[in-house]
Protein 1
Amino acid sequence: MKKLLDIMKLVGTGLMMTVAAVAYPQSNKGTITPVESDDNAPPKPILHYYDKHGDKLETPVLYLAELDTASAVRPSSPYPLYNGVSIGANFGDAIMTLIGQKHQSYDISAMVSLHNWFFPVVEAGIGWGNYHDNNDLYRIKAYPSFYAKVGINYNFLYKSDPAYMAYIGLRACAAHPRWDKTDIKSINEDGITITSPDQLNKSCLSVYGEVVAGLKVKIAGPFSLGWNVRYRVVKKNKGGADPWFVPGYGTGPLGVNISAYFTFGEKKKKDLTDLLPEHPADNTTSPTAEPSTSTSGPASPESPSESSSATSPESSPIGM
């Protein structure tokens, strides 16, 4: 037993000497030491290709960025709150009457641009019509009657040129139709024609809603043309009458408007200097703070320090 213990001690001593012989030369090859970082060091400018709206810049710029990701994904428009007003005139029914439509409604509208994004709308007009039953059982004359609509449009192209719009919208509408129903006849079971008294000076209050989808395109200068399709919903007539024609509504739930617009007070898209804060040193890095940035001017491709700090569009904190 004693010999066995002596042998184990010799083997252990040999292993320790072997490990020491191998480890000692390796320690002379150098060790990895942590690199000290200075949290107070000023950040280096970064070359960016996109602004904070995701639009590509004509010339890349260098600026400091401490980006809050929560605010970066918040959509925003490069246009001011008030970006002009468009005055329109709807003449679509003038075309529809040429293909046999028996009624017509014409209106004017005012549409205010908020950030080129949301457009409160007011519309007001007059409609009338005449109808002769195919079986000559009655005639209807709808007198010129007033209607009004109020609502809002949402522009999907709010970051683009305000001369072009692709939008959806909602309207709340009211009309006051007035009509006469004359030459009223009916045929009984024996085939005898029975004449009924005329229904004169009939009227009611009609309310309904509209879902709108349309386009608006600049033609020249302040002049634009627009087209939209309207689906009318929840029509109710108050006054105990059921009119054949409702001004602004027509005789069915689906309608088309064609309008000419003149736009006033439209402003240009903000440039990059308007999109960045003027005093980045005053900004904080709290979770609710806006991005802290400072413009350093257009990037020079001859500067190695600037080109080495360039980031791809995918890694740019502004190209969200």
Note: The chain has two domains: 46-76+270-308, 82-261.
Protein 2
Amino acid sequence: MTKTDWKAEAKALKKKVRKLKDNLTAAAGPVVEAVGEAVSDAVAAAKKALKPVSPLAPASFPALPAIRGVEFAAVEAGVRYQNRKDVMLVRLAPGTAMAGVFTRSTTRSACVRDCQSKLALKAGTAGAAIIVNSGNSNAFTGKIGDQAVAAVTGAVAEALAIPAGRVFSSSTGVIGEPLPFDKITAKVPDLVAALREDAIEMAAHAMMTTDTFPKGAAATVQGDGGVIHIAGIAKGSGMIAPDMATMLVYLFTDAKIAPATLQKLLSRNVDATFNSITVDSDTSTSDTLLMAATGQSDAGEMKGPVLKAFEAALKGVMHDLALQVVRDGEGATKLVEVRVTGAASDADAAKAAFAIANSPLVKTAIAGQDPNWGRIVAAIGKSGAAAERDLLSIRFGDILVAEKGWRNPEYTEQDGADYMLRPELLIHVDLGLGRAKRSVWTCDLTSRYVEINADYRS
């Protein structure tokens, strides 16, 4: 065989091999695809089993109204999580009024400090924006953290052609790790391109860390000349206690309202809502509540009864979101209202309520559906609130458990045990000393809470 014949035969053989390979690939394609789908389904099922949705979760995410002048987007940036959206952007129309409430933690994050400084600036007429990432809190990261905030907000400002002083940022997740801000800035063009009015649910998903469901709430108010809309989203599940708990909350309205008035309404209603919940008595470094009012409703500027109705509606949205955070408490199976009445002062009412709501002994008893009211007595006694044995009473819902210094003679353990089977409970303590009162919402403490927090960085 000549050299030329050998080359021709080799070429023909290679052609046959390629054809055979193509045929095998075509035949195996459906099998490979089916196997891939099966593996994906198995992985999704395993993830769902490892992170079940809270039994206290709403049936679905609510239908929230579009707010004129507000657009949302969310993308996958891989800040910490893979194969899920973890960065969201909100674009706000020119002239939007901004207000905020933040954690009072002395180790608060770079984002929190940056937001606080920007809200202190004189409000302008330019547009505004909010950018949020999950997976990394950018807290206790020194000057590097400040530089990361500047890089992220600067990139958004440039992309949206607005002042950097009108770009607010939040980060939530692991503390003490430098924020890989380049992963976020690289996605800013994609975020801007994806902005739309109806993507608020997607934005709520992108903020989640140990949350098991996205949180949203809304309300409407009839104003002079048109309807005023309010919509809000939140994240939070663990490290939840007063001083804004461990949460991120963003509220939006199309109301015409001055920044100072908006701030006043927000600050006035935070104590009865977001500062009245506790999951585990721990407070975060990143707690942020921002509210934006675009002024684009057809209704005129609010005053008198309309302003009063707006404040009531705003408080309702804040309360709804706050309770959703507790419903998603890490490992929670019970939503509990601790209601203290008859206290000598507001401070004493709060002390007693939070002592009960934060007590590991009370919370584990509730998890075990054990009506151990003696633990409530102990919590009151250690709270520091004024209390007298023979004046206070304890109720589970409408069931009188104890009064006049001892157990109610008509109370039975079976009554208490039956009540504890409910998913939502009321513990009502009347101290019999005055007229002050306070309600606090909490959840039970289960072994799942330990599992989640033991594996948080794994």
Note: The two ends are 65 Å apart (CA to CA).
Protein 3
Amino acid sequence: MISFSNVKKSFGNYLVLEDFSLEVQKGEIFGLLALPDSGKTTVSKLVMGLLSPDSGDIRIDDMEAGTGVRRLKRRLGYVPQLIGTYPKMQVFEYLQFFAACYHMEETKIRSRIHLLLENAGIIAWANSPMEILPRAVLQKLGLCFMNRRFWFWTIRCLLLMHEPYRK
């Protein structure tokens, strides 16, 4: 479960959230749709612990957002609107590079990348250089890095899911 209770967040004199409350139950898929600059990204950053609320309470299951960071990060995934890339790398090489950074077992990397690209629906882009990818493909590529219990996308909306992405 994810819950916000009377959360307030401001940046200087700019009030972004005031008395914001929300509860997303296990198994529920929730989308937060709103106008630009209305706080969607702030909500996701608060859940991820990237920002702290000025007041109020944010909980993910039995944990307070922003505490127990390692344990919390195992449950959360965040895909920003744009991911940083190495423009000349091909998509497959890019994923291999990050798999190595996470000390993934060499024998599993190729099959895992293939499966992730297939599940994200971007297998046709595997040998394409990163610099030519459309934004939508870059966003789907961001999903390939995660296997988390909760997912957060900031593609002009916020989607909370209680289970990992599966095709």
Note: Helices lie at 40-48, 69-73, 91-101, 106-120, 135-143.
